[in-house]
Amino acid sequence: MVPEIGHYALILALCVAVVQGTIPIYGAAVGNSSFMSVAKPAARGQFLLVLLAFCCLGYAFAVKDFSVLYVASTSNSQLPLQYRLAAIWGAHEGSLLLWVFILTIWMVAVSFFSGHLPEAMRARILGVMGLVSVGFLLFMLTVSNPFERLIPAAFDGRDLNPLLQDPGMVIHPPMLYMGYVGFSVAFAFALAALFGGTLDAAWARWSRPWTTVAWCFLTIGVAMGSGWAYYELGWGGWWFWDPVENASFMPWLAGTALIHSLAVTDKRGGFKAWSVLLAILAFSLSLLGTFLVRSGVLTSVHAFATDPKRGLFILVFLAVVIGGSLMLYAWRAPRVGLGGGFSIVSREGMLLANNVLLVAALGSVLLGTLYPLFLDALDLGKISVGPPYFDTVFVPLMTPAIFLMGIGPLAQWKKASLPDLAVRLRWAFGVSVATALVVPILMGQWSPLVSLGLLLALWIATTIAVDLRERLTRTDGSSFMGKLAMLPRAYWGMVIAHFGLALFITGVTMVKGFEVEQDVRMNVGETATLGGYTFRFDGTEQYKGPNYIAARGSIHVSQDGRDVTVMYPEKRRYTVQNQTMTEAAISPGFLRDLYVSLGEPLEGGAWSVRLYHKPFIDWIWGGCLVMAMGGVLAISDRRYRLAWRRKEVEVPAGTQMARQTVS
Amino acid sequence: MNRFLIPLGIFVVVVAFLGIGLTLNPRELPSPLVGKPAPSFSLPQLHEKEKVLSSNDLRGKVWLLNFWASWCGGCKEEHPVLIHLAKSGEVPIYGMDYKDRREEALAWLKDWGNPYPLVAVDESGRVGIDYGVYGVPETYVIDKAGVIRYKPIGPLSEDVLQAKILPLVRELQNQ
Asked: Which of A45, A204, A222, A443 is least enclosed by beta carbons within 10 angstroms?
């Protein structure tokens, strides 16, 4: 009964979405305000209906209703409750439901925080989101219904993929989807502006916080995915340039470019058409990611459900949504007009270069991901593109982008002087170069790539320091702290996000340059030394988990005779799917991780054991977290808080805004 | 006006390719090489690089040729299946280490177990081209006369092994 209620709620949600996607947009076109006002209640109603469906599926999992096909195929009576609930998004049908659910959450958020928008604008935004929702709901109800019954009911379920039975997997997909789907708001804003022909600085200012929030979620989501791969796949890597990872990384690159381009549109009125295009691009790539993961056109370790019928549906949907919005773009964008002119050496110029480089990087990732498919379709041969390609292409593109990232915030808008910038930044440059050269030598091993990585990280950090110092001398305030507090939070957000990137680059550089690993055969009581730590293998013991049996090794770690920790790597066998999983043991630290995983059992209680010493690896994810914190700080800026409170419509011209902001 | 149509143009091309991509199944491409003699190769071995593994030495028995690499995620996925098959001793699996670094490949085998009696090193990917390798992992079933009889693409699963490969291998071994 409950699954039928869920199914019915989805059908009703589809009806509401159709109304939401048509009437308000029509109302906005003819200026009928009662038609436009349908948007808000429709969005909220749709949210409640999808919430109901979501709860129904959750209930089916909670009570182990194996007469529901999806429940039977992704869970098992032995599976603990938290993983049964996480199994809602453990496979195709349920993750679509999660997608739509999150889309409706964003709709409700728009309906609440859009008091300051003109009514026509709001109606169009919610209308566009409603249309996106129609597509996804139709997709679910036609070819991937999570409530499909299995008659007769299965005696027990087939269990969730053991790789996904992990606390990280419980929150990773919702985070990632919050980011993916969050770009639908920026997308809807862009389309609404194209429909209405009001592409101005106000449009950019309204879009900015939404884009930034989505970007924060996506940053965390991608970082969590990478962290999950690190500790769950058991071979110590953190990024594989797998098609599915790329699918989440491409919208991130587009979103990052969008954030920067919107800043120019907001403050200078420039880059308008470009910002709109990036907004369309970011969401299109989110949709493309779904297509790549779900359609089976690319083989990947992550591609868990593939079905050509579904692939065809998503492709048609992609063609309609993206093709339609690009047509709208081609038709309306030429009337938008250009912003103010600027010279090449100016903040606009640097942000433009940043955008070009980010989009080029995005293009190269897209090309690498789709290249095997292109060649195959053209019958030119079959190839696979691996990490060597991406590493080769990515570093040269990102190096100049990061170099400019140091200069950009210090450059004036419109026209900056190169000699002046050089003078202001000479210390930052000198300190960065010297430190980047010396540190690897002190660590005992110099290589050009390590120095380059450190140089980039230090360059970001030192230019931030120069910029802060200059701004503080210009700011009035009694005390140092008072001066710090005078700087706008949006500025702090930028500084912190950039600093997060510096931490991230440091982490990547140190891990790539200095990690050590060792494969050893260890008898009970035997020791091995790695990175200054002594590892003693104390044998394994058997134990039984809820739905697996495991051999748990214990490894005692000491440094210079002092005890450091005891680590428990495991080898688990999940009984239902008969899959063996390596659960690595990790001892995290600020400056290093120790990472131990069990290989194969050998005779006499001995095991093959893999030991890693990974310096600074947690800085990779720490840096992402700091970047996301920067985003959060930026949206807490005063001007947005004021904007939410003020109910009246206000449309300041771009020039006015430019004067207000501290440059 | 024209330059605003460029994104749409690019998108149309991408969609066309994705559409063609849907009609191709990367896991089940019939190889034009099935039924033809396996391209011969003679390559250095992974464990002892002075020695050579040559396809001619394998004439007269049924064997599997598995293209893999330490950088390949799918290889990790199929690895337990290969180990299991190797332990059963039904048919030897010869490895072809594809576009890989020797030390990483050795470490990978040491860590996860080695199902192969011998591994050849195809560093440049030349032999991969001869065999029409689409993407690692790929496995070829080769009969006593050196003819390719079957080629599943992508990670081997226990199902494919039990349903297709092992019956075929037994039939070929009895010929």
From this structure: A443
Which tokens go with A435?
Answer: 């430190």
Tally helices (H) and strands (E) across chain B. Answer: 6, 7
How far apart CA A110 and CA A125 sit, in angstroms, is 8
For residues A313 and A624, what is the distance between their CA atoms, to the nearest angstrom? 34
Residue B154: CB partners within 8 Å, gap ≥ 6? A299, B26, B27, B74, B135, B137, B138
Q: Are A551 and A571 in contact (CB under 8 A)?
A: yes
Which B positions 35-64 lie with beta carbon below 8 A of chain A?
none
Instruction: Burial-class residue A247 by CB neighbours within 10 Å (0-12, 13-18, 19+).
Output: buried
Q: Does A277 touch chain B (CB under 8 A)?
A: yes
CB A629 within 8 A of CB A485: no
* CB atoms A298 and B4 under 8 Å: no
Size of chain B, expressed as the number of residues it contains: 175
Query: The complex's ipTM?
Result: 0.75
Predicted confidence (pLDDT) per residue in A580-613, tens digit? 788 889 999 899 999 998 887 888 888 888 899 9
Residue A73 vs residue A51, higher pLDDT: A51
8 Å CB contact of B8 and A519: no
Residues facing A551 on adjacent strands: A542, A571
Give me the sign of the Cα torsion angle A449, A451, A454, A459: negative
3-state helix, strand, coil split of chain A in percent (to 5) is 65, 10, 25
The continuous run of DSSP H or E covering A529 comes out as strand A527-530
d(C-alpha A593, C-alpha A586), whole Å:
7
Across A464-546, the runs of DSSP E, i.e. the strands, are: 516-522, 527-530, 533-544
* Coil/strand/helix, residue A301: coil
Q: What is the pLDDT of residues A270-295, one digit of tens each?
A: 888 899 999 999 999 998 887 777 66
Question: Which residues in chain A have Cβ-Cβ distances shorter than 8 Å to B11?
Answer: 284, 322-323, 326
Q: How far is residue A476's CA from residue A194's CA, in Å, rounded to a whole number?
A: 42
Are the beta carbons of A64 and A71 closer than 8 angstroms? yes
Q: For the CA atoms of A552, A555, A556, A557, what is the dihedral angle to 10 degrees? A: -140
Minimal C-alpha gap between B21 and chain A (Å): 6
Chain A residues 340-379 with a CB less than 8 Å from chain B: 370, 372-374, 376-377
Is the CB of residue A326 less than 8 Å from the CB of residue B12?
Answer: no
Question: Would you say the C-alpha torsion B93, B94, B96, B101 has a positive or negative sign?
Answer: positive
User: Searching chain A, which residue's CA lies closest to the CA of residue B5?
Assistant: A330
| One-letter amino acid of A22 | T
d(CA B91, CA A598): 28
The contacts of residue A434 (CB under 8 Å, 6+ apart) are none
Q: What is the DSSP pairing of strand A585-587 with strand A579-583?
A: unpaired
Contact partners, residue A355, CB within 8 Å, separation at least 6: A257, A260, A261, A271, A274, A278
Q: Going by C-beta distance under 8 Å and a sequence separation of 6 or more, which residues neighbour residue B95?
A: B46, B66, B68, B115, B116, B118, B119, B120
